[in-house]
UniProtKB/TrEMBL annotation:
GO terms for biological process: cell wall organization; response to antibiotic. Signal peptide: none annotated. It comes from Kitasatospora phosalacinea. Residues 246-261 have a biased composition (Low complexity). Residues 55-187 form the NTF2-like N-terminal transpeptidase domain. GO terms for molecular function: penicillin binding; peptidoglycan L,D-transpeptidase activity. InterPro entries: Beta-lactam/transpept, Beta-lactam/transpept-like, MecA_N, PCN-bd_Tpept. Residues 246-267 are annotated as: Disordered. It holds the Pfam family Transpeptidase. This is Penicillin-binding protein. GO terms for cellular component: plasma membrane. Residues 310-579 form the Penicillin-binding protein transpeptidase domain.
Length: 585
């Protein structure tokens, strides 16, 4: 908040004080009526004060100001009304605990601010110039030391007073704003404002800058806007700075007879005069993002031939989000906010549900060529029937009909939503540090509706954030909610898979890379990777969406490419290239 108040200006240039073209001027005060019989007004006369008179006049003014007797100090100037306003504004805004002012002696070098003051009468109501020589004055230097209760460092500065002789034989300080401080010009104010440390840099986990990555723009802007703002009373870490600034809009303007040739058009910026209190330093904010993986993710989503795409990389051991990217980068953040069918990547969760229901990797799961779901014929990517398939075969070759038929036999309508929430954390409300859509797997009222969900179709809605987390949970065995800022609260899942089911699920994903649908991905995934392809058919779309989720070491990645076709054709290569960069944290 700008606490500054405009200090009224009455100007006689230093050049006039030292000799000029005007005669005596009347000192207009509220105490003088100007009527016949009233006390004659004091006026500035042409004769300069003697050195002794000038020194005593300057000392009397400074002593009264230092004691806080602002009324007395103002009466010792040639414009008491404006001096009173200016001194009071300084006292109210700066709020010093003590002011020490010492006369330094005569000087011949006016302050820079005084030299800017234009020649003008002391008041628009001043009397006409008297005949004779122009008034001259004496410049007196002084030293100021302003103390504050909250700091042991005083504000020390040198100032200059112009002292003129009055018609009653006394001396008076010629009032201009730079009496208070030499850098204060006409039309300016003493402003006391909060001072904030330079905004903390937002970096990746290794301290590297992130501003060059287009997908992160929204996150960086959000974090910057959350920083303390000027005038925020809740921010106890702000400092205090005293500045010379333009008077705020709506405040009283300088008198018509006053001007400052150096300030026309306003200041470009406040001139800092003194820092009362330094702000508390703001540490850099390190995100969980890894710049190397972020760069790779940005490149892969941008390389999809203009097709909308998105990707998320997660560290399974922590839940830290190491990268996310989406294209076009000026559109929706599909990586976090997308809500589309994830296709066969959902079979990772369905397979876990089947195994918890007693199905083993070697249990028969025949793969008919087609099956019916809610009156719609469902087929497979690979033509032909495979009555010899086991769960392993159905998983690594992604047989839709196998999962639908076996799911109808051994699962319940709520089986998939329950295990997704209780083990994989899908359906919990995640606070990642950025707005996100939580994967939605509705509980259907009957098996006909639930059957489509077993293969990631129907009403299931997800995004790469959710599916990367699924792969991360399989890799580590524990759901760790994805986060972007280290230390954020992470929701916990109700339980984990049994060691046997977890080991079998990991084996199914590894075998998918070795000899299943993920083996077709070029470049090949790193050795030991586990993966699942997904080909999601979307109504009214001529091409299926390409999905892929995988893990390698302590890194899990998922991607989707709208209209990209089979999971191994578009999303798979993109994920493979990011996995090959690796988690080198």
């Amino acid at each position: 908040m700008n606490k500054g108040a405009k200090i009224g200006v009455s100007v006689i240039a230093a050049a006039v004080l030292l000799g000029g073209g005007y005669g005596a001027y009347a000192l207009v005060s509220g105490d003088d009526s100007g009527k016949d019989g009233a006390k004659k007004p004091r006026t500035v006369v042409a004769e300069p004060p003697s050195p002794e008179l000038a020194a005593s006049g300057a000392k009397a003014f400074l002593d009264a100001w230092a004691k806080g007797d602002l009324s007395a100090a103002a009466k010792l100037t040639d414009d008491p009304d404006k001096a009173q306003a200016g001194l009071q504004a300084f006292q109210d805004n700066v709020k010093p605990s003590a002011v020490h002012l010492t006369v330094g002696g005569p000087t011949t070098a006016p302050s820079a601010a005084a030299s800017k003051s234009a020649s003008a009468p002391a008041s628009a109501a001043a009397s006409a110039p008297a005949q004779g020589a122009a008034p001259t004055g004496v410049l007196e230097s002084f030293k100021a030391s302003v103390e504050f209760a909250e700091t042991g460092s005083p504000w020390n500065y040198d100032g200059v007073l112009g002292v003129v002789k009055m018609s009653d034989g006394t001396a008076a300080v010629h009032w201009v704003p730079n009496v208070i401080h030499p850098k204060l010009d006409a039309g300016e104010t003493i402003a006391v404002k909060p001072l904030y440390a330079a905004p903390a840099a937002i970096t990746d986990r290794k301290g590297r800058p992130l501003a060059s990555y287009p997908s992160l723009t929204g996150l960086l802007n959000k974090l910057k806007s959350a920083a303390p703002q000027a005038g925020d009373p809740a921010d106890a870490g702000s400092g205090v700075v005293i500045s010379a600034a333009d008077a705020p809009a709506g405040s009283a303007s300088p008198s018509p007879s006053s001007s400052a040739t150096g300030s026309g058009g306003g200041k470009a910026a406040d001139v800092k005069l003194f820092t009362v209190k330094e702000p508390k330093p703001v540490p850099n904010l390190k995100l969980t993002i890894d710049a190397d993986l972020q760069q790779a993710a940005e490149q892969e989503v941008a390389a999809q031939g203009g097709k909308p795409a998105s990707m998320v990389a997660i560290e399974p051991s922590s839940g830290n989000i190491l990268a996310y990217a989406f294209s076009p980068s000026t559109g929706q953040n599909r990586a976090f906010s997308g809500a589309t069918a994830p296709g066969s990547t959902m079979k990772v969760i369905t397979a876990a549900a089947l195994m918890e229901a007693g199905v083993t990797p070697t249990s028969p799961m025949p793969c008919p060529e087609t099956t019916m779901v809610t009156g719609k014929s469902i087929s497979n990517d690979e033509p032909g029937a495979h009555p010899e398939y086991t769960l392993t075969d159905a998983f690594i070759h992604s047989c839709n009909t196998s999962f639908i038929e076996k799911g109808k036999d051994v699962l319940k309508p709520n089986s998939l939503p329950s295990i997704a929430k209780d083990v994989f954390g899908l359906g919990l409300v995640w606070q990642t540090g950025l707005s996100n859509f939580d994967t939605d797997i509705p509980v259907e009222g009957n098996m006909a509706g639930a059957a489509s969900e077993f293969i990631g179709q129907g009403k299931v809605r997800a995004n790469p954030l959710g599916m990367a987390s699924v792969a991360a949970t399989v890799q580590s065995g524990v759901f760790r909610q994805p986060i972007l800022v280290p230390g954020m609260e992470q929701k916990k899942a109700a339980r984990t898979l049994s060691p046997e089911v977890l080991g079998n699920l990991q084996s199914l994903m590894v075998q998918t890379v070795r000899s299943g649908t993920a083996s077709e991905v070029k470049p090949a995934l790193p050795a030991g990777s586990g993966a699942k392809t997904g080909t999601a058919e979307v109504d009214n779309s001529p091409d299926a969406n390409s999905w892929f989720t995988a893990y390698s070491g302590n890194l899990a990645v998922a991607a989707e490419v709208q209209g990209g076709g089979h999971g191994s054709a578009a999303a798979g290569p993109a994920v493979s290239k990011v996995l090959r960069v690796g988690n080198k944290g």
